[in-house]
Write a structure and sequence with these properties.
This protein has 134 residues and is mainly alpha-helical. It has helices spanning 6-12, 19-32, 41-59, 72-83, 95-106, 125-133. The mean pLDDT is 82.
Length: 134
């Protein structure tokens, strides 16, 4: 008994048709691309709603405590060193701490507060927290 050759075998067994599934995919694709431009109005509204929700949850009651919180005492201290032009060696890149120093300068900090206990009245700590949270 002889085995059929590869060409005879492929002639006997037809390949499954993919034209039906491709046509269904292309029609779905065309129905999504009916709006000119990148996004339609619904997409923009969803992005706006999510952005507002994120901003609300991020900034809600951000100025509640007037004491240095959690890592403010750590990063604020390093930012104050930059404000005082006291440069130091750190194993981490300085970009984040320089941004903290910028927020301290914009908030009215003069480099004398050591970020332990309550903020002095001349430091706008709410602005500083919002700047760093953004």
């Amino acid at each position: 008994m002889m085995r059929p050759s590869k060409t005879e075998k492929s002639e006997r067994m037809p390949l499954p048709s993919t034209s039906k599934s491709f046509a269904a995919y292309s029609s779905r694709q065309e129905s999504r691309d009916h709006v000119p431009g990148l996004w339609d109005h619904r997409d923009r509204l969803i992005i706006l709603a999510l952005t507002l929700l994120c901003a609300f949850t991020r900034l809600y009651r951000i100025g509640r405590a007037n004491k240095a919180q959690w890592d403010e005492s750590h990063f604020g201290k390093f930012g104050a060193l930059y404000v005082n032009r006291t440069f130091y060696h750190d194993v981490h890149p300085p970009a984040a701490k320089l941004l903290v120093a910028l927020s301290e300068v914009l908030a009215g900090h003069n480099g004398t507060f050591n970020f332990k206990g309550e903020y002095p009245p001349y430091v706008n700590y709410v602005f500083m927290r919002m700047f760093n949270a953004a």
